[in-house]
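FORM 7B - TANDEM STRUCTURE REPORT

SECTION 1: FIRST PROTEIN
SEQUENCE AND TOKENS:
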Amino acid sequence: MTDPKPAGRGRMKLAARCRVATEAPAFGLVVFCAILFNAALMGVETYSGLAAEHRQVLQAAENCCLALFSVEMLLRLGACADRPKAFFRDPWNLFDLVVVASAFVPLVRENTTLLRLLRLARVLRTARFLPHLRILLIAVGRSLPGTASFLFVGALVLYVYAMVGWLCFADSDPQHYGSVGRAMLTLFLLTTLDGLTDAVRAGLQISRFSIIYYASYALLASFVLVNVLIGVVLNSLDEAREIEDEANRNPKQPGLPPAGGGAGTGGGPGTGSDVRERIATARRALDEIEASLPTADGRPERQLEASRSGP
């Protein structure tokens, strides 16, 4: 088994210097303030009179923000110069790179609407600097499978009750139950219990048994299903907190993927390559230390070898 080709010393020095800059607290604070300032600029541009009067100033401020974000991405890329794959293993790095680099794409720059949407996406980058917001976004992502199941069950309940409502109230209340589509829309609006009182009163004028229909729907849709959705989100939030706590307990080394994670999780090829690279780096460091140790006559070993190999 051969070790992977080690990174050159120039790349290692570049990565070390960029890493010092990106890990400084002031760096994160400056980028965070720039993101908020960019969001404020977008809000100012919504006022047509103010935007027309200060168009050049706003454009210059936007260019400054874009330049700052570009420098940030270059520094983050430079911090992984000795380990390029580590940069692309971080989803936040990929998201930041796409959002920032898209501003330089000609077709995107010419499309004002798309460019503004991408500028709006920069606001989401604040999650990198706000742990609690990052936990919420992770929780939302992990709750998607459970939410999909909830939506399927909710749509099924809504359809069944809409068909029953169409059968019972189509002739008396065609405005709300004239078709299954109108019935589903009516019941969907009643899920929040807004207007339920008026609907029950109108139903009682048609039949006394309508109270059973509305009461059972309110109990099932507004209480049971909504509480199930809340439970799914809270469970995902607990999982997200555990993931964040685990990441804090096992912080990733500079330029390296998270411990036990990355693209090679589970003992795949990525993990083996990472281990080999770490071993190669450790070997080079040990060789340099061993070469600098003094020998019996007080000279460093590298000088002794040079004198032996001399004429």
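SECTION 2: SECOND PROTEIN
SEQUENCE AND TOKENS:
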Amino acid sequence: MYKTLKPGLLVLVLLVVTMLSACSTKSEPAAEPVATSGGSGEADQPLTKVKIQLKWVPQAQFAGIYAAKEKGFFADEGIDAEIIPGGPDIVIEQQVVNGAADVGITGVDSLLVSRDNGLPLVSLAQISQKSSYRLIAKKSLGITDPAQMKGKKVSTWFGSQQFQVLAFMEKNGLDPKKDIELVKQGFTMDQFFNDQVDVATATIYNEYHVVLESGTKESDLDVFNIEDAGVGMLEDTLIAKKDWVDSNRELAVKVTRAILKGWNYAIDQQDETVDIVMSNVTDGSTTREHQVTMLEEIAKLIRPEGFTEQQVGSFVDESFARTADIALNYGLIKKAANLDEALEKSIFEDAVK
């Protein structure tokens, strides 16, 4: 079994806030066009360069962005898109605030933390609509109810990624400071495989299937769905610096439109899109089989049952309010989030017209 990296690393956000704040008051210049050919058959049309920062390494978590580039959706909007991979040492907010990227993909909790610390970042569209988190335990341990996690070792990712798990414990009557032993989880599932923890955190599109691919059967696991428990936090969201949006509003709409079109294409044409993703991954870092599964699961989070193509990327107020409440209750943010200012709903609305 190969080892798959954990997406969505937020560990360094709070460490760079002071440095980033110095950059937060600068006005953004209008984006510069670059001389290249358009994607709609019109030769020699200038395309505007836009840098898009991913929150992790190339994989199907970002399939819609890769599809938008490969299928010419960015070019159709007059955009020359540069997709920048993320990694464990890349802080998305730093990249966007400092101008190394124009837009980025980060978690909503990270966006709220950044804004709480004075960084002028906004969301242009909400990519994932549901939490991907699951808590898993081996069936042999007999943990069939959350109450039975009392006294157990529970692992999860830190750096603001642990709060969904803490909220789950409290929702089920457990004091996460006293009733469980919270363990920092690595980027592989080795702790779970080696019985170093009783309960582990897994995203449904990645780590959960790493466990299954190891030979473990679904019937050998007890699985607890964070979203179903009512404490799921929103994850992948498309962000930009407020000054950049104000100076490049039409471009922000076009970028958003191309990405949303890319996601609808990726969801509808998954086999072809996995080929596109595989052409961008680092050799040996993953398998096509794993990326097929990842896209299947990601698609359910981005366009869940009942969602239309027009609703992909939309802002569901209830989900944002729940995410902001959890962030405030656990001290992730110091003051209640102003979601009216954090969400540039008009960008999304214009993008789907």
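SECTION 3: OBSERVATIONS ON SECOND PROTEIN
The mean pLDDT is 90.
The longest strand covers residues 47-53.

SECTION 4: SIGNATURE
Preparer initials: ____
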